[in-house]
Amino acid sequence: MTQHAEKSLSVDVPNFTLYFGSGSAVNPDRVFLRLELVPRVDTDTDAAYAERYYAPFNDRFFAMAADPAFEAYVSDSAYARGAQAPSGLRYFFDGTEANMEAAASAVRELAAQWSGFVDAADEVPPPRAAEIARRDAVIRRVAADSSPDNANRARVFGAEAFARTKNLLCGELP
Q: What domain of life does the native source organism fall in (predicted)?
């Protein structure tokens, strides 16, 4: 576990999420990027949290939204749409060298921002850290059980390996 990932367990900073791949059932011939910070609070009721952690993502969000090479991915799953973090990046794009570099640049930029958030954060008291860990575990389980990508994972991995991947997504190690 990296230093930042380890510290992120004891601070109230959103979780960094990155999915990068291809071959989805929705758009099988294009690359998919999901890059976002999963909030650890209700951002509808904590405007300061939303501003602190999501305002820096806005520039990249709007830049990619304006780029015709990047097609916004909008899921037909109510769960997936509802779970998207503020300013989350979810795009399909062709795997050209220029597009791959643009995606990699977004990952590097936003990972560095997240790392800075973690470095600057004060550790929370153990009871709050335990509360955050419980909430994170529930979010991971719901995501693993409800993801619209489950059909792809089951088809690619087979039933047994798919069950293991869901458990790994939930933080359960073999």
A: Eukaryota
